[in-house]
Amino acid sequence: MPRLPSSLLRHARRQHPLLPLLLRPCRDLSSARNELRWLREKALEVAQTTSPKTKWQVTLRQSCLERSRGMPLQYILGTQPFGNLEILCRPGVLIPRPETEAITTHLASLLQPPSAPTPSLYPKRTTKNKPLASQAPLRILDLCTGTGCIPLLLHALLSPHTPSLHISGIDISPRSTTLAHKNLTHNIKTGSLPQPAKKQLSFHQADIFSNNDSAQWAGHSTWDVLVSNPPYISPCAFNTTTSRSVRTYEPKTALVPHVNNNTAPPAIDHVDADTAVGDAFYPRLLCIAAQIHAKVLLMEVADFDQAVRVIGLLLATRAWEGCEIWRDEPGARKGRAEEEVVVGGGGCRFAFPSIIQKATPAEHRSSTLLQITQPRIKSKGMEANR
Amino acid sequence: MFITRWGPLRLYPYANALRAPRLWRYQSTTTAPTPSISPALLGRARALAAEHAQLSKQLDSEYDIQLAKKAGALSNIAQALNGWEAANNSLPELQQIFNDPSTDAELRSIAADELTSIREKLSALSKDLQTSLVPQHPFAEMPCLVEIRPGAGGNEAALFAGDLLRMYRAFCKRKGLRANLLKLDSSASGVTEDQIEEAVLEIDSPSAYDAFRCEAGVHRVQRVPATESKGRTHTSAVSVLVLPNFPEQGEEELGAANFDDPSSDYYIDPSDVRTDVMRARGAGGQHVNTTDSAVRLTHIPTNTVVAMQDSRSQHKNRAQAWQILRARLAQQRRDAREEEIAQLRVSVIGVAKMGRGDKVRTYNWSQQRVTDHRSGITVHHLDDILQGGESLDQIMTSVKEWLKTRDVEGLIADEEAAKAKSKNEAKRVHQRG
User: Fold this and answer.
1) Prokaryotic-type class I peptide chain release factors domain: which residues (chain B) (predicted)?
2) A98-384 maps to which CATH number?
3) Tens-digit pLDDT profile for residues A222-233
4) What is the C-alpha to C-alpha distance for residues A228 and A232, in angstroms, rounded to an integer?
5) Are the beta carbons of B291 and A375 separated by less than 8 Å?
């Protein structure tokens, strides 16, 4: 990381004595100023609510010092906005990322009932002319849910159109599920989520690699949509490309797949062991998707290379009809040219954002959506052409 | 009186006043309201009143919301015209009684009294009629956004922008208007409200636009700034923009203000707007944890840029940026429209339109006064004005009056231009025939 120029530090100090501290994690003046403002608002709020009155300046100084050591702002402030929700963040649980927010919003827009002008992924069986309330609920399962942000936002976005919903989140860490429950009650209390969310949303603690509860996920054997933002960073990438603040303060289990004998990396001959560790969750997720008869599968991946590797796995299962790769902001820029990508000898054609619904007799009329989170790639979406 | 001078003239504090009495005023004269109503306007008022009568007859037979709305809008004019005509008709009768040599002295004195009172009434009534004829501003009933930006004058301008922001917030608080700060870019610490680079105040009460319309323009300040070490008076300027705030879609029928309807004047094609989200280079997602939530919208055809970074939520920043962009574009389009109309009028009125580029008001600290250059009013309660008190009301009312008389002038000019045009055409037809 390049050293901060002393002129910048001097300039910052002249504006506010605490700004140089915030420049260390922020690296530029405008975002440091913003963070200072948010921290100040928080400090003022804390000073008003706590009974033994500590001066807000003291609180502000303390939090600036913490921030300068790399502590994520969201852990200091305790929250992170996610769509129109406010997600509580606590150490030990991964902070929701803006990329996840973007794909969740986009998925929700695709899952809306077919009356919407956009191509809909809404399950086929519910398109019959029945009143919506009498239909079976739309079931969404989120694996590796963390703060519960994806199920909560999906519920907030879908519930106005889809009265009958059932969304579950699963995580291995008991801390996560407790926090997810807290988030649920918090957002109902602030009015961001409707009252019925309490019944329609649930969070469970489970290990998705253990075979004990794999027959029934969260009490149900079939789900319409499977979403996951699994740990996808390889050990090598964790040491090199991952930022220091993330490495020191955020839980490693949510970032790097934990490999033991049970979850042995699958045999992919031409990639080395390191990337295999990074990809460890995807074969299992594909397997679970098949088990629960999911019609839509959305997984977040790290970069384009990983997306291509996962598509390789996907093609091997021969169970999926179409596949798309989404860039960071799916749906933001439309009308880009289609691009060709070669995966394991088979050509893949880009057709974003529409999904080509081929009349295949396969039982699984389903699509896989992969979210890549590296902005440098020019490609937007991809449809497996088999 | 003769004053002995002991030094050069410029050393005296009121040197200009000593030189010669000032017999002229700059841009500060308000024209007296026309006592009699122009025949062009009268014709228009009669036509509209006839339309109102017809509409109310239709409404008696069957009720229709659209018609009722239209009739309601016209009822003002019909009422004003009725009052004016009643007064106007009684005038010749009284005149006759007064002039008749056979009337006795008592009756004559009564008639004289009546005559003067009716004349007074008539001038008030004709003013009413004129103002009722002025079409309402299309944004008048909307809530508004007030944008404050320092102009020439560096830090001092930024300081004064902060003063103006405080003044408007206090004014809203006193008036019970809901105001919230949508955007605040402060130049210095990013923490205080003293020096402002840009502030957008959202005033969320209906017809706030009408209330604040008179505030748009350049506000000039003359004072010894806090940043000045040698005690010199500086002149700086702050520009204030008043934009219509479009309510959230789907609330009610908005007519021309419906920005979602492609046929509307204020429609923005989403494909014309480029959205930029600030993103760091390199790996994203789980690898990094960004707090940068800034959003920048660029309307490509007009090159209008709105950047928002106040909220931690990108979602909220985006919504607010759209709100400001919509307001700015609507005002731009409205300005273009008004410019066209002014071009048509310029031949008749001969006075250039007061644009937002001209200074509208001066705040002078050393004389503790505020002068509005449009209505020509000067108020000496500077502190009260800066606290948004009654004196600010006084100034705003006088400017509104000024705007009204100007609108009436414009209306008369329009009518006359239309009349001249039709006359010319008739002449041409006559010549041809």
Assistant:
1) 279-295
2) 3.40.50.150
3) 888 899 999 999
4) 11
5) no
